[in-house]
Design brief:
Blueprint (H helix, E strand, L loop, with lengths): L2 H9 L7 H4 L14 E3 L4 E3 L1 E2 L4 E7 L22 E3 L26 E6 L8 E7 L15 H5 L3 E5 L4 H5 L16 H16 L5 E11 L1 H11 L9 E5 L8 E2 H15 L6 H6 L2 H7 L8 E2 L8 H7 L7 E6 L4 H9 L9 H9 L3 H10 L8 H25 L5 E6 L24 H4 L13 H20 L20 E4 L5 E3 L2 H4 L2 H7 L7
Parallel strand pairs: 2-5, 7-8, 7-9, 9-10, 10-13, 11-12, 13-14, 14-15
Antiparallel strand pairs: 1-2, 3-4, 4-6, 6-8, 15-16
Helix pairs in contact: 1-11, 1-12, 10-14, 11-14, 12-13, 12-14
Amino acid sequence: MSQHRLRSLAAAPLCLALSAALATAVPAAATAADAPVVSTTDGSVLGTATATGRQFLGIPYAAPPVGSLRWQPPQPVAPWTGVRSAQAFGPHCAQPSKPPLGTGSTSEDCLYLNVYTPASPPKRPLPVMVWIHGGALTIGQSDDYDPQRLVGNGAVVVSLNYRLGALGFLAHPALADHAGGPSGDYGLMDQQAALRWVQRNAGAFGGDPGNVTVFGESAGGLSVLSQMASPGAQGLFQRAIVESGAYNPTQRSLADAEQAGETFAAKAGCLDQSAECLRALPVSTILSDQNSGGYTPNIDGRTLTESLATAFASGRFNQVPVINGSNHDEYRLFVALAEQSGVKVTPLTYVPLISIALSVDPLTAMKIAQEYPLSDYPSPPVALGAAGTDAGFACSALNMDKSLSRFVPTRAYEFNDENAPVLKLPPVSFPYGAFHGAEVQYVFNTSTEPVSGGLSASQIQLADAVQRYWTDFAANGDPGARGVPVWPQFSAGNPAMASFAPPSPATETAFEADHHCRFWNNLGVLGLNR
């Protein structure tokens, strides 16, 4: 693997799309006579009744962003007459194939969402939970996640697709609506369009548009943080849950992003740097020439007006209660993927790989190696995983907890199940531990019985507690209202966190020391894609 490839792994916290592994099959449909019809503001949709609820799949929330609408803010859907089928997922947004992490697509007509509701109309409007998938803003899709257990806890759940990669996040001066104007961040605009759809239509599905929780993992978590900081998302949600999303606290400037966009345009063959040429490029060309290491939002001046860290430290953000967390061994996933590609961490390669993975000079890499001596860890890959976790995820999350808790009720957590199931991931020379994305299978649908290769009985108990935390928080902002352990609020003076490890959550207070956060703050090396 080249140095660039290892850096790509470090810079791209791919939501695992543990999709096929973490989500279960869509429940079997009931009879056609039971198929529900709901009227939305754009037209009526025909859903599917299942043994556990109702689902409405592939509902368009914006016009297809094709032709002249490529690299434009999302536009309204054309209304339809009659009843539109909502019994199959919409196309995935264009993305490269990255097995086992993602399924390839060349579709730009992809702005669809899915709605999951209880089987019977509720007596009173239910909280709405809107899920944003991860995947480095480059891969992923909404249909990888089965939320029926969350629905069973009393929520309406919405999942959505949004534009990815260069099609979703390319900034280029030719794409601005006026000279010097904003460009890029189209994927974030899509998410806001979906949230506005929820405001208009949640009531028709039994949901409460005044009680919306937006939640996501990895790049989905980064998206949630971005929406908290975005003026355009004000009033569109009342609570936020961030899973492993704090890895990019400082966004690039519009000028830097547009310079990268001009480099992309030249590589793709648009030497005249015109919008006309860019909008005429084949999707296959865009996918092959885009940044393989993933994308991050830019400070475009409209969708984002300042970096996340600045917004949260100053209080200039959409002030809603928040759950924010990370996993104890986030970076082991990326060390594992690198090992699978031929890059092995040994005593001889340890320091050079620190330098490459964290984009630091050799002298700084030596300081990091002294803070994380190989003698303290069972193997060199585990040592690199610890350093990458702390620099890339844990300490950025803690800093956000400290900033957010000054202004809004904040709950912090760490996922600590060192034996979380590893499904659809290749075996490597070291344990994955509580790896990046491991908690997803505890949030979404899980079997009610222990199964071979899946969750054990104690892990199912933990998953039940996590699911109740999430839905209780969505209902009333109080995770722990229904018989699960009390989850204290986080504050700088009382940095208590929930530790998610089987069989039941507990409280931890040593997170900062465990993850060497004072060292990293003093060193000034925090976050990925910085």
